[in-house]
Design brief:
homodimer; alpha/beta; 8-stranded parallel β-barrel; elongated
Chain lengths: 973, 973
Amino acid sequence: MGRGIAVLMMFDSFRADSHFMSDPRTFASRSEPKPDRPTQMLPAVRESGYEIPFLRDRLRVQSAAVMWGSEATMAKKWVYFFGAGEAEGGASQKPLLGSKGAGLAEMTRLGVPVPAGFTVSTEVCAHYTTNGQTYPGDLRAQVGEAMAKVERAMNAKFGDAANPLLVSVRSGAIISMPGMMDTVLNLGLNAKTVEGMARATQNPRFAWDSYRRFIQMYGDVVMRLGKEKFEHIFSAQKKKRGVAADTELSADDLREVASLYKGLVRDMTGTDFPEAVDEQLWGAIGAVFRSWNNDRAVTYRKLNKIPDDLGTAVSVVAMVYGNMGNDSATGVAFTRDPATGERRFFGEYLLNAQGEDVVAGIRTPIAVAKLADALPEAYRALDDTQKKLERHYRDMQDIEFTIQRGKLWMLQTRTGKRTGFAAVRIAVEMVDEGLISKDEALARVPADTLVQLLMPVFEGEAKTRATKEGRQLTKGLAAGPGAANGKAVFSAVEAERRHAAGEQVILVRAETSPEDIRGMAVAEAIVTGRGGMTSHAAVVARGMGKCCVVGCGELAIDEGKRQFATGKGNAVVREGDAISVDGTTGEVFAGGIPTHPSEVIQVAVEGKKAASDAPAYQLYAKLMGWADEARRLKVRANADTPHDAEVARKLGAEGIGLCRTEHMFFEGTRIDAMRELILSDDEAGQRRALAKLLPMQRGDFKGIFGAMTGLPVTIRLLDPPLHEFLPHTDDAIAELAKASGVPVQKIKDRAAALAEFNPMLGLRGCRLGLTQPLISEMQVRAIMEAAVTVKRDGLEPIPEIMIPLVGLATELERARTQAVAVAEAVLKEAKLRVNYTVGTMIELPRACVVADKIAEQADFFSFGTNDLTQTTFGLSRDDAGRFLPWYVDAKLLPVDPFVSIDRAGVGGLMKLAAEKGRSVKPNLKLGICGEHGGDPESVEFCHTLGLDYVSCSPYRVPIARLAAARACVAEKK
Amino acid sequence: MGRGIAVLMMFDSFRADSHFMSDPRTFASRSEPKPDRPTQMLPAVRESGYEIPFLRDRLRVQSAAVMWGSEATMAKKWVYFFGAGEAEGGASQKPLLGSKGAGLAEMTRLGVPVPAGFTVSTEVCAHYTTNGQTYPGDLRAQVGEAMAKVERAMNAKFGDAANPLLVSVRSGAIISMPGMMDTVLNLGLNAKTVEGMARATQNPRFAWDSYRRFIQMYGDVVMRLGKEKFEHIFSAQKKKRGVAADTELSADDLREVASLYKGLVRDMTGTDFPEAVDEQLWGAIGAVFRSWNNDRAVTYRKLNKIPDDLGTAVSVVAMVYGNMGNDSATGVAFTRDPATGERRFFGEYLLNAQGEDVVAGIRTPIAVAKLADALPEAYRALDDTQKKLERHYRDMQDIEFTIQRGKLWMLQTRTGKRTGFAAVRIAVEMVDEGLISKDEALARVPADTLVQLLMPVFEGEAKTRATKEGRQLTKGLAAGPGAANGKAVFSAVEAERRHAAGEQVILVRAETSPEDIRGMAVAEAIVTGRGGMTSHAAVVARGMGKCCVVGCGELAIDEGKRQFATGKGNAVVREGDAISVDGTTGEVFAGGIPTHPSEVIQVAVEGKKAASDAPAYQLYAKLMGWADEARRLKVRANADTPHDAEVARKLGAEGIGLCRTEHMFFEGTRIDAMRELILSDDEAGQRRALAKLLPMQRGDFKGIFGAMTGLPVTIRLLDPPLHEFLPHTDDAIAELAKASGVPVQKIKDRAAALAEFNPMLGLRGCRLGLTQPLISEMQVRAIMEAAVTVKRDGLEPIPEIMIPLVGLATELERARTQAVAVAEAVLKEAKLRVNYTVGTMIELPRACVVADKIAEQADFFSFGTNDLTQTTFGLSRDDAGRFLPWYVDAKLLPVDPFVSIDRAGVGGLMKLAAEKGRSVKPNLKLGICGEHGGDPESVEFCHTLGLDYVSCSPYRVPIARLAAARACVAEKK
């Protein structure tokens, strides 16, 4: 298998594309080997390993594996050894071995120093969870064999009193879920082996510290006893000894702690803490498998659209120790800066510490470059290794290492998470370095990450002013770029509560833990007091594309009192106070600082050439250039005003896919004319009102045609039911009565007459235009008169008149006839030709079913997926909020279908419509103008459907362009 | 072509099956010869005439005709001659010649005496209406040739001063539309020919009377001058002469009238009345073609579901005269009684009259049997002819004849319209007579006609009492059977107005005209003062299956004063007064008389054996027996109570297709428990409320299972949104607050919290059951506990639990798991096995698209076509009233899709769902429980889809059984 695929596979763990998760069965039916052709499929599966795009398909892996077993009648392989330069797996087996297991195996093969170990595959997890938490019959034997190999490689024996082998038991999902699942370290210690370890290391204190740590961790993770009571014993011991730091406790103190811990376990469980190392091992393996379904992990998967059935592998790895003295260290690092993408070895370490100390953010670690001074030889080995790994994987790596008494051990390598900005920079620079192709670069930048390049920054002056005013509260580590302001909150619950109430919040925590994920998701920014660039807060925030500052040690954050003292005078920030966060510099400010468009927006939209040297813009321009070369789908914008049209064009829109004329009716005095129309008693009155609206609409259309000269502009005729234009409250009605001279009662009567039980399914769209043709006539006249004027000005208007809510071919036929009559009349009056087309929204299931008939009347189709989703599901978007989130939580739906197109249902109807439409008119223009047009998943789906364009809000245009390019890249494989 | 087909074709003009009209293009694509196989299709088309089922397909006829022309490169034949025992067309050319033209040709071939003439085909009508009212180039020559043949056959010359040939010009649609279109008589008269006619007949008075009639008719029909001014001149002439009757005017008087008429024409039009007979002829032909699109005709077609593009033919027939003295007569008759179906020659005639006098109901005519006394020889010829015609056509014929100076001429034969009762009787008796097969009998009784056998009659005593009380106002002709009561109204407009306001009305008119059709359609019954059994009122009412009494000469009906005097004392019935009508006896009563179930209902439902000798029941039983033998679809009923279930079973239901559990919650105190449930704050409160509902539901289910023992009962779990159960008005809320002890504000808050923008698309159906599982659990428990009890009683309950509003397979999976858990728990408690199934409504487009996935979870599908129509169209049934009727009027829709399934759209999704469902489970049970289940068109569609059953309201069960049988018969052809 080629390197490119391996790298892409690794990359993709960075962000899962959710469409593979939309409906497991749908997907299965799409790509699973057909049951009736197993022999034909099998060789390919076998030879190529798992040649599945991005390897996200657990199902196929499983079914292929099952077939192997049945075909070859060989015993199933559950356990994969690695160590001493030899490994049974590699990067390509990620679905089986998990990210961690695959990385360890691959590193072993590469000759990188890795402690020996073995990985229990994800298939065992599947077996375990679906078979009442039991294991396959032959697993125990395979684990035994692998353990024997580890013993040989590490020259120690598991459970041996004299020369004990200790291991860590770690989870390892296919897609990394940092900190979500459980790990047990120092496993293999018991009353005998701890003595052996003390002898072997000649460091009884270290041995007993390891033992008490093991009991605590095992008690917490495997036995579910919690940490608190252990910590209480430990604190009591320190108090008893009158010491402050853990390190001040002696070996005997720790032996006593271990004994007290065991007593605690006995008290809480009624049984002894397990002495048998096998019992320890199987307990830990089971705990890891069970942790796949703990609440944190489930929440994380939902937030990150990771399917629940992937499962985790378990890697059992020989322990190495970074806490064996000052010749030992442990650290985590990235081969490039994950925040900015800069090409520099970037990370943190702690001398004489265990890995958990770094990740947990309990001690603020030291920059990895400093390791060159502390342990120069080990640093050289580390630096060589990181370079080797990045070259090998052809992507930025996130590595974990331990230096045990001067010797480097690599514990993990995986594709590193990064900010959107870093993703763009790394991808673009790796192309420049010749490491990857342009297509690979496109595939590595999830379209949504562009949001971060488009995100606001602080206005330069405003921030300077705030600084001068002394409002800078602190400067921490810039863990997630961007600028934000909001009200400080001190708990995830409060963040959720205020967010739900419509407030912008910034979550301030001493440090974050997986329990905070929901709060983090709704916050504008995250600020923590402790922890480094690889702390939980930093990692999660980067994944979410959030502005984030960590390690603000100056802030005395008191979560209980819901406030923090700043260390600057007596200033205290309390819950609800406004603060501002600069995630690019790490600064935190008191009060709100106005934000400001990003450099990309400045250059592209505002025409400020000065900003065009900014790296953000340079990278953006390069990447978008490649995207535009690669993509097939055109990208248009939904815009209702000349201004929006201009912005959209500057961001690369190739036309307007949806101009909602009714939005024009809500502005200023226009609503008065609209209301006059609705309240008119006769045609004469209606015509008077329409005569007022005509010039307003014409003016808008002129502006839009001007902004979009040479590009098509799709204008939808009036869509909403008329009652939406009438006031609803008594006050507003009274006001209208006064202004219009129409009696209150008449307004109320008219509103009552127009009221509907189900407005979504009522008198709207073309039903309105057909029953009230005067409105459509005015609109078509305004469109065509504007086009004539613009053309006379030497520009090139391309109007596309769109009839909404068509369900019957007869509706479109009649509406088209109406529109053409008016348009031709205008052109005849003007003695000028402007080419125009008439098409329809496809937004009703019936329209999809009879799309061939409708196509006969249509120059184009534009899928209105908002309404199509509502009608296909029978689900009101306005009402679904009461149960749709529960549906997603309860896994009835993989994702909110209003966010990402429901491929099986709504998508099935779209496919039918596209096929039927093109069966009649092979070149029928097809587009989408629902809000899904800006959703990368949906854009990809539209690409596979063969649509001509997507249309989205102006600021989503770059994202759609990139998504369209990525769809093409994905298709090539 | 066989006789059977001819007869069926004729029959079908009686009532058009509308599905052929649903979407002309859909149908075209279904049955039109494939364009790529013309040569293969053509011979069959040619040899068999037009072998299209029921010949309702104008499209195919046209395309076949076009192909003939192009294939043979022969000049197109537009005109078909008949006369002197020779005819160019026949019964099989009805689509080309119209019903009248085909009948005249066929009769000519049979040797029946028919005046010579020719028919201009319906294709000319199509050409005329689509080519700006112009004719094909070669038409004039063909008409000239045909006219020459007529002249030879009749031995007279068109326009000849000495021996003038006079003709009638008559419309003739494929499907008869009595009185809807225009006719011109006596054409060919002018200043010269009138003298010739006077000489030839030796009857100047007759000649001048004919002439003045012609001018009046032509002036009205062709020149559109109206009748009024002509009638004014005529009245003035009578006044001037001091005479009362028309017949008292002399030849000279009439000559003067003709002259005055011509002056009137000149005054009104500025041109002379046409003297040239060719000009007269073409003027009349054009008027007939134009009359196809007059308002009356359009309305009639809409009411009778006749497609607008069929067009009319024009028959030009040599005039014969029934008004040449007392040896002349004219009449209309049926070969069997069209009201009762009795086998007797039945009709009316007038001596010395023109046909129009009979049909218009101006003079009350004499029973045709009396003709045997007046003109015995002519009567014998007539009687022989009617027998011959019925034998030939193998169906009851509606004939028109004229006896001119003792010689019989037949002017028309067509399949006669009849009441539902007569349709059943004639069909059944013709089988007994060996004239037709059982299948043919089934095909001849449109399923909806059974309504008339199930319609109420007066309670015997109540009517007797009313008679004793002297409330019988009059006894007219029993033109349409049935019993009705309602408020008297005197105009069609008022009938419509009051009907719209919810009142039952009886339309009372001196006589009806086509302008009254809409009013007749909404009336419970129709009463007229003038006219016979073949008058407009009688014919139309029979077509509508209405109770109707005509010829009530005793009633002095004053339409202007909106009242009638009864001739019995001073009794006057005013608009709004209650009256009752017995359409079976012809009686009209003052006041309301309670009605009473029909004999069929008495025997079948009420078990009154006494009524089983009644012919209605006998015929019903025989026909339904044949239907049950013939059909494949099972028929179930929608029933929510044990009583409805019992009635349904007695009417032949083979199970319950839909038991709506929520209906049970609205009854009496149950709503209180339901409200308690909704207002509960916690699970304990909800459980308390549900515990109250459980025994109520269980009791209902017990009754239903008992009534339906051995047959399946599909019970739908709670469907409507909960807010439907809460009160909405302030008063009702206050009452509930008082009764429940829940504060008013809390009730309002809860109602507000539950309120929805689009309840149709809201929290209902399975969404409710999934988010509030306690309700579903209670319902399933009630179902299964009831089943257990009933089974213990020795009966056989077959519960089918139906989950509503499923759009996702995951929804059904979860709901099914819930339901099965409860059901199994109940059965385990009871230590008894009851077989049950769990299935779903298919009522959302998404469910249709993913029906294969859903089928994996379902034991059965039941199409909920009400909601499926709403969501497929994006059309709220509650709101569509504001524009749907307009849609049908404007021909955007052929028929209200809530009445008859929209085959192309909703039907397309049903087909998809059926295919996908059965692709996974070949024996998946499929049914329909929407209201369409009782619509014959929709039943036929369900048959073609291969559903297992339809379900409808109990009293529609016999109709669905017959419709199902007819679908099978139709399929055989």
